[in-house]
Structure formats: structure tokens, C-alpha cells
Design brief:
The protein contains 16 helices and 13 strands. The protein is of the alpha/beta class. The chain is globular.
């Protein structure tokens, strides 16, 4: 048990299975029975899956079909133990990854890059997830800036809504992300970003679907700005990159964010989100092979042999790449379009319902698959409290306070949109006269807006990670 009991109370019961199953604090002396282990694991999965299967959970489970997952797990099992770094043993891995990158490249209009410069050829790599893709892109801009411009204190200018993965990468890589406040529509303020460009700037960044509000930044204007100043431009399409192209094809007005824009030099796009593959894969796509080369690491003189790897990761499971490939070829364009249609039908229904509730306001004017809600009348976290009591699990936002619902396939089940709108309306009644003073939802809510509160939240967040590593 931690010496800080309060930390555990703060984060709820993080060890609900400790009373039911043996807790291991060291290796068992003798190996356990496999059937018994499987039974235990199945019990835990059965407790947890219903939390999202009913369609009340925002984001995180993008496909949700258990048959789809069973198929991908079957594919994974064929290659789960194979290491993609040992490529002579698995030429299949080359097929999976090269074909996935070709398919994603096409989807992001990679063919257009040679129209701008006929020497350029869109080129990508597979990573373990969005954060990893962004890390590798940031690393490329650091190296490119140093080599081509002699920049030793590299800076990236980005809107305040940019995903923390950029700041995390900058933290690891000794870079700086200059965060610029967004405009009233929660989109990047391009002129304010321009004002932050200086001699140390290596790249700009924007999102195609921001995580907080789901909006697409004005990437076209950022592209012009990047070209004007000869900077890189990373587009974080981790969330939206795999669904916005299909939403655009359905006829919705989606701002162009991909390689059709001549200033876009990299795009991260997560296969493990709206690509509907297993968790643990993403793609990072560059405008040229030359740019991609900055990501590679080689050490020729290592006693273990001449070492080379494409990304920050070392050994990687071929099983995940096989499952990613299988998910994509089995979905096909038709499957992705159908999924996008169902998601947009649901999102549109929810948006229409929300528009009939005057106390609520949707944040952002160009969001599609994600709906971020706030209120100018009361604290929106009281509405979220009510929703939580009805089994909904939203994602909390701040600056301004609110919450978002990232619509995925589980929400497309019949009746979910209608139930959400009804519970939201009831939540508004609840929020107008709440029976307590401080909302219960919204992580460490009520202190987030003060300097002291931020420090407490930071400490609390670190305690949360610590608590997740305790066995009881
Ligand atoms: C816009 C955006 N960028 C990056 C990420 C990070 O992705 P991951 O959690 O796969 O590392 C996310 C995750 O939700 C995201 O929404």
C-alpha cells in the first residue's frame, strides 16, 4: 500500500480485483495453470467491456465490433511473436507495412506531392501510436533544422489546442513548443502564429481534428505561412486523419488538410483509432523520402553488429502490423465510407438535439465526428455529473470548461443518439439547480483555473500515474 492513502481515495478503487484474485508481488514459485489464468482474464474483460459496449463512452473504442476484434486477434496471433527488426525472417512484414503506407498515402493525397516538386515522393513509417508518430515527426524537424539551417535551439509554433504529445516530444528532445491561443472558433490563429516565428523556428503544427473540439485548423493558411518562411508543417491527423477523408467524400465541408497543400510536410494518422485496427499502430507520413531519412538511426560500429532502425522504437511485433493491414483491406473504401456515414448520421442527430437546448453551446464551427459542449449559463460539469450518473462517459475539457463526445461506431447503435439528447436535456435541468456546490466530474475540478490549482492538479496527475503502478 502506498504511504499516501489520500491519493488512492482521490482516484477511486484502482484495484477492484484484489479481493477476488491473488495479488502477485513476485513471480509465482511454480507456473500457474493456463486455463485458470485464462478464466481470470476473461472474468476481468467481461467486467470491463460492458462499460463501453452500450455506446455511452466517448472515443477510445473506435470500432467496437467483437467479431471484428476476434478476426484481428486471429491475424495478430499468426505473427504476434515475430520481431519486425529481423526482417529476413518475415518478408510478410514488409508487405504489410509498405502496403499500409501506400494505402494511407493515397488516402492523404500523397500522389499530389510530385505535382509541386517532381523529385518529391510521399513516404511514411509505421509507429506504435499517435504519440510515437508525433515524436518521430518532431525529431525529424529538429534534425532537419540543425542540418539545413544550423538551428540549435529548435522551436515549433503551434495552437494551444495541439495535442500534449507535441510538448512531450519537445520535452524529450530539448525543443520548445510555442503555444499560441486559438481564435473564437477554437481554430489556430494564423496571424498570431506568424508573430511567433523567429530564427529558431523549425516547423509549424496544426491539427485535423483537434482533440479538445474536433475542429480542423486552417491548414491551408498554415501551409502558405510555412512556405513563406521555409518551415516544416506537421499536421496532427492522429484523430481525424483516418475519418475526415471519408467524411469529405460523403459531401461534408471538410477543410483540406493533407498533401494537396504544398506546405504540408508531414501528417500523423492513427490506424488504431478510426483505422479500426488493434491498439498499438499509427503512421507518420512525410512529403519526401529525404525528410523521412532524418528519422532513421544508424550505428555502424556497435559490437553487436551494424544497427539501423527507422523510428524511435526497437523491436516491434509483426502481429500488430499484420492486423493493421488486415483491418484496412477488409474494411476497404466501402467499409470506411459506411462507417463514416453511420458516425456522421449519429453526430448530426446529436447536434440537432443539442441545438434545441438553449443553455448549451457547441464549441467550434467546423467539427464533424466530435461534439464539444459548454454552457454560458451554468457550470457544464454539473451536466456531465448527471450524464455520468446515467452511464455516459464524456471527456472533460478546460479553457473553457466543457466536455466532448467523440462519436465512434458503438454510438451508431439504434437509439443511442436519442437517449443522449434526452439525458442531456435532463442534465440541463439538474445543472440549473444542483443539490451540491462543486461538480464531481472534471478531474480536480474547481481548482483548475487558479495557479495553485494547476500545481495541485500537476501533483495529482503524477500521483495518479504512481498509483497505477501500485499492486494494491
Ligand atoms: C489529435 C490527437 N493527437 C495525438 C493523439 C495521441 O495519440 P495516442 O494516444 O495514440 O498516442 C491523440 C489521442 O487521442 C489525439 O486525439
Amino acid at each position: 500500500m502506498s504511504d499516501d492513502q489520500d491519493t488512492f481515495d482521490l482516484f477511486g478503487d484502482m484495484h477492484p480485483y484484489n479481493k477476488r484474485f491473488k495479488v502477485f508481488t513476485r513471480l509465482p514459485e511454480k507456473g500457474r495453470d493456463e486455463d485458470e489464468v485464462l478464466e481470470e482474464l476473461a472474468y476481468m474483460a467481461e467486467q470491463e467491456n460492458p462499460k463501453w459496449q452500450g455506446g455511452q463512452c466517448s472515443g477510445t473504442m473506435y470500432h467496437g465490433g467483437m467479431e471484428h476484434y476476434a478476426f484481428l486477434n486471429k491475424v495478430f496471433s499468426l505473427y504476434s511473436f515475430v520481431n519486425l527488426l529481423q526482417r529476413d525472417l518475415c518478408p510478410s512484414g514488409t508487405k504489410f507495412e509498405a502496403e499500409v503506407l501506400a494505402m494511407v498515402g493515397k488516402m492523404l493525397h500523397g500522389d499530389d506531392v510530385s505535382k509541386v516538386n517532381r523529385m518529391d515522393e510521399e513516404a511514411g513509417a509505421i509507429t506504435s501510436g499517435g504519440t510515437d508518430s508525433i515524436y518521430n515527426a518532431m525529431y525529424v524537424y529538429r534534425e532537419w533544422g540543425r542540418e539545413t539551417k544550423g538551428i540549435t535551439e529548435p522551436e515549433v509554433v503551434a495552437p494551444a489546442t495541439i495535442h500534449p504529445a507535441h510538448l512531450k516530444a519537445a520535452h524529450y528532445l530539448g525543443m520548445k513548443v510555442v503555444r499560441v491561443p486559438v481564435n473564437a472558433d477554437f481554430e489556430a490563429d494564423v496571424e498570431a502564429m506568424r508573430a511567433q516565428i523567429n530564427a529558431n523556428t523549425v516547423a509549424l503544427a496544426g491539427s485535423a481534428g483537434t482533440y479538445p473540439h474536433g475542429v480542423v485548423d486552417p491548414i491551408s493558411k498554415l501551409s502558405d505561412l510555412a512556405l513563406e518562411h521555409k518551415l516544416g508543417l506537421h499536421v496532427d491527423g492522429c484523430l481525424g486523419g483516418f475519418i475526415l477523408p471519408w467524411i469529405e467524400k460523403l459531401g461534408y465541408n471538410v477543410p483540406v488538410f493533407d498533401f494537396r497543400l504544398p506546405g504540408v510536410t508531414s501528417i500523423s494518422c492513427d490506424t488504431h483509432k478510426y483505422g479500426y485496427s488493434l491498439k498499438g499502430t499509427s503512421t507518420i507520413n512525410f512529403r519526401s523520402k529525404e525528410l523521412r531519412q532524418y528519422m532513421y538511426f544508424t550505428q555502424e560500429d556497435w559490437p553487436g553488429g551494424a544497427y539501423v532502425s527507422p523510428t524511435a522504437q526497437g523491436s516491434r511485433s509483426a502481429g500488430l502490423s499484420a492486423a493493421m493491414w488486415a483491418a484496412m483491406v477488409c474494411m476497404g473504401e466501402e467499409g470506411y465510407l459506411k462507417a463514416a456515414r453511420a458516425i456522421m448520421d449519429t453526430a448530426d442527430k446529436m447536434r440537432e438535439g443539442i441545438a434545441r437546448i438553449p443553455e448549451l453551446r457547441i464549441m467550434g464551427r467546423n467539427s464533424t465526428f466530435l461534439i464539444a459542449i459548454t454552457s454560458d449559463v451554468f457550470d457544464p460539469y454539473f451536466v456531465n455529473d448527471y450524464l455520468a450518473s446515467k452511464g455516459w462517459r464524456m471527456n472533460g475539457c478546460q479553457n473553457p470548461l466543457g466536455f466532448h463526445f467523440c462519436i465512434t461506431l458503438p454510438q451508431t447503435q439504434p437509439g443511442i443518439a436519442e437517449k443522449f439528447v434526452q439525458d442531456l436535456a435532463d442534465g440541463v435541468k439538474f445543472a440549473k439547480d444542483p443539490p451540491y456546490e462543486v461538480p464531481k466530474t472534471g478531474f480536480l475540478y474547481g481548482m483548475g483555473a487558479t495557479a495553485d490549482g494547476r500545481e495541485m492538479m500537476r501533483l495529482g496527475m503524477r500521483g495518479y500515474i504512481d498509483a497505477g503502478y501500485e499492486v494494491e
